[in-house]
Structure prediction request, 1212 residues.
Amino acid sequence: MDYQNLLENIYYQVKNQPNKGELATYIPELARINPDKFGISLQFLDGQSYNIGDAQEKFSIQSIAKVFAFSLAISLVGKEIFKRVGVEPSGNSFNSLVQLEYEKGVPRNPFINAGAIVVADILISNLKNPKEELLLFIQKAAGKKIEYNLQVAQSEKSTGFRNAALANMLKSYGNLENDVENVLDIYFHLCSISMTCEELATSFKYLCNGGKLITSDERLLTLSQTKRLNALMQTCGFYDEAGEFTYKVGLPGKSGVGGGIIALYPEKFTIAVWSPKLNVKGNSLRGMKVLEQFTTDSQLSIF
Amino acid sequence: MDYQNLLENIYYQVKNQPNKGELATYIPELARINPDKFGISLQFLDGQSYNIGDAQEKFSIQSIAKVFAFSLAISLVGKEIFKRVGVEPSGNSFNSLVQLEYEKGVPRNPFINAGAIVVADILISNLKNPKEELLLFIQKAAGKKIEYNLQVAQSEKSTGFRNAALANMLKSYGNLENDVENVLDIYFHLCSISMTCEELATSFKYLCNGGKLITSDERLLTLSQTKRLNALMQTCGFYDEAGEFTYKVGLPGKSGVGGGIIALYPEKFTIAVWSPKLNVKGNSLRGMKVLEQFTTDSQLSIF
Amino acid sequence: MDYQNLLENIYYQVKNQPNKGELATYIPELARINPDKFGISLQFLDGQSYNIGDAQEKFSIQSIAKVFAFSLAISLVGKEIFKRVGVEPSGNSFNSLVQLEYEKGVPRNPFINAGAIVVADILISNLKNPKEELLLFIQKAAGKKIEYNLQVAQSEKSTGFRNAALANMLKSYGNLENDVENVLDIYFHLCSISMTCEELATSFKYLCNGGKLITSDERLLTLSQTKRLNALMQTCGFYDEAGEFTYKVGLPGKSGVGGGIIALYPEKFTIAVWSPKLNVKGNSLRGMKVLEQFTTDSQLSIF
Amino acid sequence: MDYQNLLENIYYQVKNQPNKGELATYIPELARINPDKFGISLQFLDGQSYNIGDAQEKFSIQSIAKVFAFSLAISLVGKEIFKRVGVEPSGNSFNSLVQLEYEKGVPRNPFINAGAIVVADILISNLKNPKEELLLFIQKAAGKKIEYNLQVAQSEKSTGFRNAALANMLKSYGNLENDVENVLDIYFHLCSISMTCEELATSFKYLCNGGKLITSDERLLTLSQTKRLNALMQTCGFYDEAGEFTYKVGLPGKSGVGGGIIALYPEKFTIAVWSPKLNVKGNSLRGMKVLEQFTTDSQLSIF
Prediction:
C-alpha cells in the first residue's frame, strides 16, 4: 500500500475541514499553542517511516507519558502493582474523585490521574533518583535525549489543585507511601515532557515489538507485560472515550491534552498524531479523525 | 501448534483445581445446573476444530445472545443505533440504574441490560415478527436449528423486576418506542437461548470472518460493522470486568451468567468455554482461567 | 396580631410580583391549570380562620397526600415501618433511582416517591380495602367528603414510567410484598386527591393537635408519633429543598407538584397555600414566598 | 417538672446499659480518652442549671465548633455566604468528595467538612487575625477563657489528608480565596477547641436567646439569623443522621466526633451531653439516647 499517499490524502482532507474543538487552557503553555499545528508520523517496524506536516516539532505529550511511567513501574514491581491500581476503564472523566471514593482509594487504572499518581509513588519507593531514572527510561525508548519542560511542570503544579486533591485522597486511603508533595512533583514533571510526533512514534516501538527496543534488542518489558500494557491502552487510553476510540479506530493507544495521540498495531507499526484542539472528552479532535480514517482506509485495525 | 494437546493440558489443569465460584441462582433453571459441567470448543476458520469435555451439551447462553440481537439491529438501522445506545464500557455492574440515570436514559453500550432492552425495542420497530426473525438470524449464524427455551424465558420474566425497572426508566426518558411489556418479552426470550459450546463457536464465525458466513459467503454485516462489533465486545463484553478480560486474555468476547464465554481472534479462530460457576463479577470463573491460559500459552492474543 | 391584615399584605405583595416558575406538565390535568390561581388558608387551633384568594377552590394536592398515607400506615404497624423506609432527607431529586440503588432498596424517607410506594404496599398488606380505607382516613381528618380524581389517577398511571421503574426496583430488592401493579394503583390514586386550601389546612389539624381530631378528640396518632411525623416533614417534606424551606420558613410542612404547600406550627396553627407555578426544585414558587414572609413578619417559626 | 430527678433517671438508666460504640481513633488525643466519661449539662434561660456526671470536664468539641465559625462568618458577610455554601442536608457522610464534585464545588451546608473549610476561608478574607478573633467570639459566647488545643490541632493536621483533599478540590472549583494551607490551619484549630458540657451549654445560649448574650444583652446575631441558624442545625447538624436526630429528639443541635452533642429549645434551654463512644454515623451513642429519652419524657421537643 502507498502509505505516503494514503496519509497525505487523510492529512489534507482533515486539514481542509474547519479546525473545531478547544485548546486546553488550564496552563498558559498549552493555551498559547498555535491551534493549527498538525503533524503525523507513521513508522513501521520494518523501517518504513512517513512524516507529514509538523511531525518534527516538539509539543507537550502530557498524559501520554503515563505509559512510560507505568512501563517502568511494572518492570520494577511486576504484578504487585495491581494491588494498588486496577485495569478497568473508568467510565467517568479522567480526574474523577467520585470514582476514587467509590473504589475506596484504588484508582480504576494507571492512566487516569489518580492511577498515575500511584504509579509515581511506586517509582519513588523503588528508585534512588526517580525523576532522573524515569527520564532515562524515556530516553532509552526514544533513542535520544528527551527533557522535562520545567516551565510546564511549574505551571502544572501552580494550578494542580485537583491533582493535589486526588493525591491527598489517595494518602487518606493509605494508597500513597511517600509525601504528597514529593509524589506530585514527579507527577507534574512526568506530564511536562515534550516530544515530536516522530520521537513519539519511535519511542513507542518497544510496545510494538514485544517489549524490546528495535535498535539494540534490549528488553524493557516481557512479552506478556507488553501485550497486557497494549490491552490496557485499548480499554483505558482515552479517558471516557476509550470505547469510542476502540470502536472507531480499533488500535491500542493513548492521548494527552496537549493534542497528541499515539496508537500502535502490534508487530506492525506505530502512529503519532498531533493537533492541539480537543473534543469535549479531552482528546485531539483532528487526531481522532486521522486515526479513524487511517484504519478504515488501510483496514489496519486489530479487530 | 498441537492445539488438541494444548487445550487438553489447560482443560485438565483447570479441572483439577477446586471448582470455586457460585452458580447464578436467580432462576431455577440456572440454579440447578450441574456445577461441574465444563466444555471447550476451539474452531479455526480454516476448518480445524477441537472439542473437549461437555462441548456438545446445551446450556443457557444468556447475555451472549445480545451480540446476535445487536448484529441484527445494526444490520437493520446502521449507525442510527448510536443515537439510542453508546459504545463506552459501563464502569459499573451490568444492570445499574445509577448509570442509566446519570446518562439520561442512553445506555452506555448495547451489552449491558439497559442497552440490550433498547436493542430489543429497535428490533420490534423494524421487524414484522421480531421474535421469529431474531431466531432465524441466530439459526443462520449457527447453521442449524436453535430454539428459545420457553421455560427459561418465563422464569426470567417472573423474576425480572430489575429489568422491568430498567425498561420503565428507558420509557420515562423516551428511549423506548414500544410497550414496555412487548419489549421485555423479546428481551427475556433473547436471554433464554440454549446452545452447545460447539454451536456457539460455530455461530460466532461470521464475526471472525469479516461479517460473512463461512458456509455460504452470505454477508450478515459489513466488514466495518464487524470490526467495530468486535471492538465493542473488547471494551464492553464482560460487564465490569472488561478491562480485566482484555488485560489477561486479549481477545474480543462476550460472557453470560449461564457460565458461557465466547471469544475470537479476527480471521483466525473462535473459542467457546462453558463452566457454570461464576466469579463475583458474574463471569465464568473457569472460563476466564481457560482463556487466559490459552492466549498466554499460544501467544494468540490480538495485542 | 391582625392576621387578616398580615396575610392580605403578603398576598398582594406576592401577587403583584411577576408570576414566575413553571406549571407541572407531565399530565394534562396539571398542565392546563390556570397559572394565576392563588389562595391561602390560615387556621388556628383556637378557631380563628383566615382565607384569602382562591382558598376554596379544589386543586390536586399530589404528594401532600403522602402524609395521610404515612399517618395511616404508622398507625397500623408502628415502628415496624422503619425496617422498610428511612427518615433521612434524600439529598437528591424526589424520584431518584440512584439513591434507591445506593441504599439497597430502602427508600430514604416516606415522602420521596419510592418511600410512598413502600407505604402503599404496607397499606395493601394491612387493610382489607386499602383504597377505600385510605380515603376514609383522609375524610376523617378533613371532617368531610374528599374524593380521588379518577382522571388524574389514570393520567398518572399512563405516564408513570418512572414510578413503575421505582416500584419494580423495590420489588427486585424484596421491599414490596404485593404485586407491582396493585401497589402502583394505590399510589396513583393517592396522588390524585383534590382539596381546597381550606380543606387542607383543616385536615392537617390533627398533626397540630398532638394526633387528635379537633372536632371529636378522636386520636389518629399517638403524641409521640405526631411529633415525629412533624419532625419528618421538617427534614424531608420539600424534596431537595427541605433545608431551604426549614432555613427560610422554619415550620414543618409538605409540598406537592400541584402547587400546594401545607405547613404547621405545633399546637398553634396550620397554613395552606396554593399557587400552581413551581420553582426548579418542584415546589410552589409563590407558596414558598408567602410562607417565608409569613414566618418572618409574624416571627412564628418554631426555631 | 423536677429536671434534676428526670436527668438523673435518664443518666443512670443509660449508664447501666453496656457502653457500646467506638471511640474516634484517627488522632491519638481522641483514641486515648476514657470511653466511660459521661456528662450532661442542662441550662434554662431563666437560670435553672443542672449538671450530672462529668459535666465539668473538658473534652474536644470538634465539629460543634463549626457553629461558632458559621455564626461569626454570617455576622460578617450576611447572606452573601450562601453564594459559597448551601443549606441542604448532605445525604452522605460528612466529608464526602462525591457530593462536592456533584455540586460543582459548592458544599451542601456549612456543617459538613467542606462547608466549614469554606467558612474558614471567609473568616480569613474578612478578619485581620482570624485565628484570634474566632477564639474571642467563642470566649464571648462562653463568657470565659476558651483555648485551642494545639496538640489536637497538630494531630488533625498530620492526619488530615481527606480535609486537604476537600480544600484542594474547593480551590480547584474556585471556592477558596486564600491559600489551601492557611485555610486548613484555621480549620484544624477550629476543630481543636476543648470545653466542658457546662461551658458548651452556656456558650450556645445566644442561639437560644434570639441571638443575644444572656449576660450582657449584646447581640451576636440578628433574630432572623439566629432562627435560621437553628433551622440549619436541625436539618444538617448530625451528618447523615440529621433526619434520625430530628425524628427522635426533635431539637436543633450539633454533634462532634469527640462525643459531644449540643441541642437547644429556642427561648427555653440548652443541653450538652458528652460520651465518647460513637455510633456508626459518628454521633455519640449515649448522647443520642439521653436526648431522645429527655425529649420523650419531658415532651420538650419543638414539634
Q: What stands out?
A: Residues 113-126 of chain A form the longest helix (14 residues). The radius of gyration of chain A is 18 Å. Chain A has one domain: 3-297.
